[in-house]
Amino acid sequence: xxxxxxxxxxxxxxxxxxxxxxxxxxxxxxxxxxxxxxxxxxxxxxxxxxxxxxxxxxxxxxxxxxxxxxxxxxxxxxxxxxxxxxxxxxxxxxxxxxxxxxxxxxxxxxxxxxxxxxxxxxxxxxxxxxxxxxxxxxxxxxxxxxxxxxxxxxxxxxxxxxxxxxxxxxxxxxxxxxxxxxxxxxxxxxxxxxxxxxxxxxxxxxxxxxxxxxxxxxxxxxxxxxxxxxxxxxxxxxxxxxxxxxxxxxxxxxxxxxxxxxxxxxxxxxxxxxxxxxxxxxxxxxxxxxxxxxxxxxxxxxxxxxxxxxxxxxxxxxxxxxxxxxxxxxxxxxxxxxxxxxxxxxxxxxxxxxxxxxxxxxxxxxxxxxxxxxxxxxxxxxxxxxxxxxxxxxxxxxxxxxxxxxxxxxxxxxxxxxxxxxxxxxxxxxxxxxxxxxxxxxxxxxxxxxxxxxxxxxxxxxxxxxxxxxxxxxxxxxxxxxxxxxxxxxxxxxxxxxxxxxxxxxxxxxxxxxxxxxxxxxxxxxxxxxxxxxxxxxxxxxxxxxxxxxxxxxxxxxxxxxxxxxxxxxxxxxxxx
Length: 577
Prior knowledge:
- Catalyzes the oxidation of L-aspartate to iminoaspartate, the first step in the de novo biosynthesis of NAD(+).
- The chain is 33% helix and 17% strand.
- By secondary structure, it is of the alpha/beta class.
- The chain is globular, with a radius of gyration of 22 Å.
C-alpha cells in the first residue's frame, strides 16, 4: 500500500527524537503495548493527546469481560460475541480474544489493577447485555476504567518510560518505499518539547481511541476526534466497517439540545436488575428479546428508539429504585454522583435515558497481530478493526480487546526487532511537502459536522438522510479545498482546525460506508432496508483515501478479511466518492 502523499497543513517539525517504537495513545491498549515493548528492550515513546490518564479507558464503567467464573468457558464467551456481532465477526479473531483473554486479565492484575472481590474472596463478576453468564470483572463498583488506567499509568511512570503528553499526532512519516518512519506531532503547552516535532521510529502503534465526537451527543471525551483513523487514511491504510457505530442505549438524557460528552449509565445497572420503562412504567423490552433489557446493545437501542417514536417522546427511563440507597452507593457510586449532579436521584426516581454515540466497531483494518496495510504501522483498541466486534460490539469486550491485541502487537514488534527485520535506526522519512497538501477547516466546522452526522447518520439512517449528509459534508470539503487552491487560503494550523479536519475525514468515510450497506445489521439501522441480508451484505466494506482525496470504497468477496499485506483488490471496482 503506497502513501497518498496527503498531510495536514502544519509547520515543519522543529525538533525530533528517535525510538524503536512510538505508541500513540494512553488507554488500556496503548499503555499495555508500551509496557510490553519496553519490557522487550525496545526504546519506546508514548505520545498522548492530553494527560496519560485522560483517554476513553478511564471513563469505562462496566468492566472487562473474560471467562474467569466457575462454569464459564472461552467457548461460551465466543458464542455470545459471535451472536452480538451479527454475522460479521472474524471467528478466529474472536477465538484469540476469548482464549488469551483470561490470562491477559491476570497479567493486568499482576501489573497492579485491583478488581472488586466477592464475599468468598474471588473476583466479583456481573452480567451485561448479550452475555449469558456473569463474566464481567469490575473495579470500584462502576469505576473499572479509572482503576485500569491508574494501574497502567503507575507502571509506565515506575519504569521511567519516555512520554510526551498534551501532544496531538498529525501524520505518519514514511520512507521512500512507503514504510513507516515515525510520526509528526504538535505539543500543546509547556514541556520538554513544544510546537510541531517528530518522533522517528520504524514501528508506530495507533491506540488513539474512538471518534464519538463526530456526533453531537456521545459518551466519548472531547479528545475522541478520530485522529488515528484520519492519520491512517492519509497514510494510505485501509479502514473497514466504519458504518458500525454503537449507540449506547442508556445515556443520561440532558435535554434535546445537549452536545458534547454525556454521562453514561452503565449496562451493568441493567445487569444488576434495573428495568427500562416508558413514562407509564411499562417494561417495553419484554417480549422483544429473550434477554429483555440485557439483549445486545443494538437491539436495546432500537427498542428504545421505537418506543420513543410510538410515544412521541425524546427519552425513556431506567428504573432502579428497588436497588435502595446502600446498593447505589456501594455498586454504582460514579453513576449516582453523575445523576445527582444533574438533579436526578436514582434512589427515588427513574433515570431519563436515550441512546448516544458510544463505540466504533470499525476502524483501521488489521490482521491477527495488529498489522495494518502500511508496513510498520499497527493499530489496537477502538481505533482498530480486528474483526472481533463485527457489526456490534459485545458489552465489555473492548477493554479485553485492547489488552489482548496490544500484547500481540508488542510480541510482533519484538520478534521483528530480534530478527533484524525492524529497521534500526528508523528509515529516513520523506521531506515535508513544500505546500500544504490538505486544507484545514475552521474551528466552527466541528459543530457543523456533528449536526450533519447526528441528523443524517445517527441511530436511524435512510438513503435520503445519508444522501443529505453526504452532500453537506462534500460541500464543506469542497469549500475548504477551493479556498486553498483557488485563493491560496486555509484556516490557521492549530488543534481546533486539525481536529475539525480529522472529523470531516472520518465523517465522509462513515457516511460512504453507510450508504453502501443497504441493509440493517447490528448497530447499522437503515429504515429503508429494514432486514438483514446475508446473501448480499455478509461482507465488509473497506475504504481507502485516494491521492486526490476521493474515497475508494469496495466490498469484500466474503465475510473474511483479505490479508493486510499484498492485499488483493476486490473484483468489484472501487466507487469514487
